[in-house]
Write a structure and sequence with these properties.
The chain is of the alpha/beta class. The protein contains eleven helices and seven strands. The strands form two sheets. Strands 3-2-4-1-7 form a five-stranded parallel beta sheet, with helices on both faces. It has a two-stranded antiparallel ribbon with strand order 5-6.
Length: 248
């Protein structure tokens, strides 16, 4: 598998990211690392509490989520949608905590916590040397599910780089502990090389980029804007496209 992995410059945090404006990032990463040593049940309880806190503090995000649920589930009762909204934020908090497990836990622990179904479909698609695009969405358990997948089949991934350079370094460094390579959305050539070399590429294009190469497609019966990168990657590389779902 050709991955063309970009080098990670270990000197960058010491030389560029120790200014006071980055201390909050390193504090958060340190807390995540310490959490990775707690029992799993304690970590998830902490995540649910974090989700409840976010639910109450980030009112604008809560309103957006509530509006989306109303659009997607117009026949559900307000009580049912409110319950789903609270469950979403609880899962969101658990997802934050799960980053520590995905980045630092052993493969044995990850296999005990996450089940992988349908891996034979991926292996069958790759058997002839053909690359495979694992088409996904940003379903909340994505970090742990991606980590488990890579214990079975090496995969690269595409992602949207973060604006904060220290946070970008920390997240990419964490994911490079298990991903074969990480490519920003502008690094199309590297992703195509992976696919042409018969590798797997995890790709989640479900965000509204509000730019070029987008299309409106029905989502729960509502037109939603999304990028056309999947078809472009498949056309340029000749890769197969398989859905990759994550479920808590």
């Amino acid at each position: 598998m050709s991955t063309d992995v970009p080098p990670v410059d270990d000197s960058r945090p010491l030389s560029r990211f120790w200014q006071p404006r980055y201390w909050g990032i390193w504090f958060g990463v340190g807390v995540l690392w310490l959490n990775s040593w707690l029992p799993y049940r304690a970590q998830m309880a902490e995540g649910r509490l974090l989700g409840a806190l976010v639910y109450h503090l980030l009112r604008s995000r809560r309103r957006v989520a509530a509006a989306n649920l109303a659009l997607c589930f117009p026949d559900a009762t307000p009580i049912a949608r409110q319950q789903l909204l609270r469950e979403h934020f609880a899962s969101l908090g658990m997802t934050v905590i799960e980053h520590a497990l995905a980045w630092w836990a052993s493969d044995a622990l990850v296999r005990r916590l996450v089940a992988l179904r349908g891996a034979e479909n991926l292996e069958r698609a790759m058997a002839g040397g053909r690359g495979v695009i694992l088409l996904s969405g940003h379903f909340l358990p994505f970090e742990m599910c991606g980590r488990l997948l890579t214990t079975r089949t090496p995969c690269a991934a595409m992602y949207r780089p973060y604006a904060n350079p220290a946070f970008e370094w920390a997240v990419k460094r964490g994911r490079m502990r298990y991903a074969a390579a990480m490519y920003g959305r502008e690094e199309l050539r590297g992703a195509v090389r992976v696919l042409r070399g018969g590798g797997g590429l995890w790709y989640a294009p479900d965000q509204d980029m509000r730019g070029r190469d987008t299309v409106f497609a029905p989502f729960f019966g509502v037109p939603a804007n999304t990028i056309t990168g999947t078809s472009q990657l498949a056309r340029l590389s000749g890769a197969a496209v398989l859905p990759f779902f994550h479920r808590r």
